[in-house]
Protein 1
Amino acid sequence: MSDEIRADYEELEQIAGQFANQANEIEEMLRNYHGRYVELRDGGWIGRGADAFMAEMDDEVIPATVRFYKAMNEANKVTKDIINQLRQSEEEAAGLFKTQ
C-alpha cells in the first residue's frame, strides 16, 4: 500500500468551478420560477389542480432545489478547501527537504 497522494490542481480547480457554475444556474432557476410561481399562486391559477401544484412546489420542489443549491455551494467550498490543504501539505513536506 502506497502512502503517496497525488493531486491535479488544475483539474480540482475545474471541478470546483463546475460546482460553482451549477450553484449559479440553480440560483438563477430559483429566481425565475419564484416569479412565475408567485403569479400563479396570487390568482393566476385556481382550483384543485392549482392547490395540488402549489402544495407540491411548497413542500417538495422548492425545498429540494434549495438543498441542491446549498449542496453545490458546499461542494465548491469543500473542493477549494481540499486544494488549499493539499498545497499546504505539499509545501510543508517540501520544506523538510530544503537545505538551510
Protein 2
Amino acid sequence: MMVSGVSPATSVVQNKISASDTETVTTLTETYTSHIIYNDGPYPVYVNFDATATTNNFKIPAGSSLSINLEFKSLHLICASGENATVYWLATK
C-alpha cells in the first residue's frame, strides 16, 4: 500500500548515550530532522539541541521519551547532581 505524501527515511542513526551530572554531547556528522529520545535511566535527563544543556532545559522523566521534528545535529544531555541515565537517540531524515 502506498501512502500519498509520505516519504521514507533516507538515513537513520541510533545512539546509546550515558548521561550524568556532567554535560554529555553527542554530535552526528550531519543535521537530522526527526528524532526520538528515550530515557531508559532511573532519573530524569535534561536535553538541549545544538547548545549547552542545564537542569533548566527540557526534562525527560525516567522511562519517558520525546519525539520531535527539529533540525539539529548535536544532542546535549545532563542529569541533576549525583544522578545518571542511559538515553537512546534515534535520528532520521
